[in-house]
Amino acid sequence: MLVDALAKSGMQPELAGSGPQMDALMHLHRFDLVILDIMLPGEDGFSICRRLRAQHTIPIIMLTAVGEEVDRIIGIEIGADDYITKPFSTRELVARVRGLLRRASYGATASDRHTPLRFDGWRIDPVRRQVYDPQATRIAMTSAEFDLLYVFCQNPGRILSREELLRHTHAGLAGPIERSVDVHISRIRQKIEENPREPVLLKTVRLGGYLFTATVEPA
């Protein structure tokens, strides 16, 4: 049903019934997005998501029949970009897919006016959507994490609310719950801060939002 709905929306979906089938397809084709069900035979969706995120920056939408918020947060914490609880309409799924694809391609579509940026030894490339640490090692980030970090680099020294961050990262249609911004930022801190428990670059402003304190300049 979902394959038919996506195909009718102009996409080219491929169906895999298990982790090994997905691996085989990804070895043969280049995909723009993964829709991942939690309940799968053998390796479950959470495990597959962790494994995918360790190897790829591809956007991931997770599907589950479990409606508990804690499960949605777990999905985001292990690297999912969005989370949809069953039952849902195919129209909602198509809207989420389009929104997430738009976010993931944002840097590439605007590549003519975007140049790499540097902060505190780090380098962020909005065209290739890649982040490098001060030792020039590429750091894996989800699509949502990259979008947020790039928005902070475009707005250094300015307090950004959660609502602004959702709007600037084109996340409205993709629909991550507002609290998921906190989870994504926590993951960013784990990657760019020397001590994530006492962040220096990405600070929380009580009742305000977040503040990126680094000096940003063209790379």
Automatic annotation (TrEMBL):
A matching Pfam family: Trans_reg_C
Please cite one Gene Ontology biological process associated with this protein.
regulation of DNA-templated transcription
Q: Which UniProt keywords apply?
A: Activator, Cytoplasm, DNA-binding, Phosphoprotein, Transcription, Transcription regulation, Two-component regulatory system
Predominant cellular place of this UniProt entry's protein: cytoplasm
Q: Name the Gene3D superfamilies on file.
A: 3.40.50.2300, 6.10.250.690, Winged helix-like DNA-binding domain superfamily/Winged helix DNA-binding domain (1.10.10.10)
Q: SUPFAM superfamilies given for it?
A: C-terminal effector domain of the bipartite response regulators (SSF46894), CheY-like (SSF52172)
As stated in the Swiss-Prot or TrEMBL entry, residues carrying the post-translational modification 4-aspartylphosphate are 37
A GO term for molecular function: phosphorelay response regulator activity
A single GO CC term for this protein reads:
cytosol
Q: Which residues form the OmpR/PhoB-type domain?
A: 114-214
Which residues mediate DNA binding here? 114-214
Give start and end of each Response regulatory domain: 1-101
- Record's subcellular location: Cytoplasm
Q: What is this protein called?
A: Regulatory protein VirG
Q: What is the lineage of its organism?
A: Bacteria, Pseudomonadati, Pseudomonadota, Alphaproteobacteria, Hyphomicrobiales
